[in-house]
Structures are given as C-alpha cells and as structure tokens.
Amino acid sequence: MRIVAIFVFIFVLCAWSPGGFAQVRFNEILADPVADWDGDGALSSRNDEWIEIVNVGTSTIDLSCYRAADASGGFDWRYGFSGLLAPGEVRVVYGTDSVAWEHANGFPAFGLSLNNAGDTVFLYDVLGGDTLIVDQYTYQSFQVLDDRSTGRSPDGNGQWVVFDGLNPYLGSTPPLGTGCAPTPGGVNCIPGVPVEESTWGAVKHLYRN
Asked: Is there a contact between 137 and 14 (Cβ–Cβ < 8 Å)?
C-alpha cells in the first residue's frame, strides 16, 4: 500500500494542472554566450549556454518527469530534470549540466544545443507511455546574440522580451530590448522597475574575471 501511495503522489506532482495549464514553463534562455556563465573559469560556446524554468503554479512539482530538447533533438533529450521545484522557484540548467547528464544517460554530448541562428526549445512531461509538450518557445537570432538572453517579464506569466543590458538591441522587430541584463537564477527584470543590486553585481562579476 505504501508503494502505491508513493506512486500516486509522484503521478500527481508530475501531471499537468487542470485544463492543460502548464505549471512548469521556460522563463529565460541564453544561447550565444561570450562570458563564463557557468563559472568554471573557461569560456565555452557549448557549456555556457543556459535555460531557466519556473514553477508558476501553487504546488510543488517533481521534476523527474521533465525533459528538455531543441528543434533538432526530437526525443533525443538534451537534459532530464530532477528534484522538486516549489511554487515561484526557478531552476537554471547550464550546458555543463546538460553534457554531464548526456554522458550519464548514453546520449551524445551536444549540451543544450541552442542554435545561435534561431531555434525552438521544448519542455516535455514524460510519464509512462505519454510524452506531452508542456511548453515551447521559438527564438530568433537577434534575441540571443552575444550574451543577450530572451525571457518572460515578469517571471513565469509575462511577455517574452530581450534582456540586452550586456549587448544593446536597437532594432524594432519584437520582442524588444529592455536594457536589463540576463539573470540566471534571479528575478527577471521588469523595465522601469529597479533591479536588485546583488543581481547586477553577480552579472558584473563575470566581466571582472
């Protein structure tokens, strides 16, 4: 009975919310790094890419059901999540994490494989024989050029914008730039709202190394 109860509990945590509402979503993407984002002391176009997901629901989610892929990958997963994600919490996956997961699970070590010329990222919920796309986002090359990230503002439920504080985007094609820096693991900037100093400090630290 205890095993059955645990299985049912995990099923509830992994399943979609009522009405197909995606409780876990992509929140920010950086595909063209020119800084050491993963903090390992070396710049790598593969290892320093990152994606961020967020739990926009009101209950904790077991991430063991979730997989990430890009347009070229299909079910050739780029990363398998693990652990729990509390309401409002974000989780960042760097290319380094993706490579380690691929090695451990018998996949080619492509990393997140985020195409600088534009790509589509997919977030899947894999449970038993069912594979559901719970979120996806297609970005254009200008959104991610040289340390620009693209993400939701505000977190989770906002419109997609460009966080171009490290490389200003002056174009008129939406999504538009915000003047804000990327914030892996932090609160996404809302234009016109002051950014916490600690977040800016963390970003500036990348360029002092």
From this structure: no
**DSSP states along 58-79:** SS-EEGGGEEEEETTTTTS-SE
Amino acid at 107: F
Residue 101 is given by DSSP the state H
**What is the rounded distance in angstroms from the CA atom of residue 183 to the CA atom of residue 133?**
25
Residue with tokens 């967020």: 54
pLDDT digits (tens, 9 = 90+) for 143-158: 999 999 999 999 999 9
Two structure tokens written together for 190: 């809302």
The CA distance from 54 to 47, in Å, is 21
How far apart are the C-alpha atoms of 197 and 119, rounded to whole Å?
32
Q: Which amino acid is at 140?
A: Q
Query: What distance in Å separates the CA atoms of residue 195 and residue 143, rounded to the nearest whole number?
Result: 21
The whole-angstrom separation of Cα 54 and Cα 154 is 11
Distance CA 22, CA 62 (A): 14
Task: Express each pLDDT in 85-143 by its tens digit.
Answer: 999 999 999 999 999 999 999 988 999 999 999 999 999 998 877 889 999 999 999 99
Helix (H, G, I), strand (E, B) or coil at 149: strand
How would you classify residue 179: left for phi > 0, otherwise alpha for psi between -120 and 50, otherwise beta?
left
pTM of this structure? 0.84
Coil/strand/helix, residue 19: helix
CA distance 24 to 46: 24
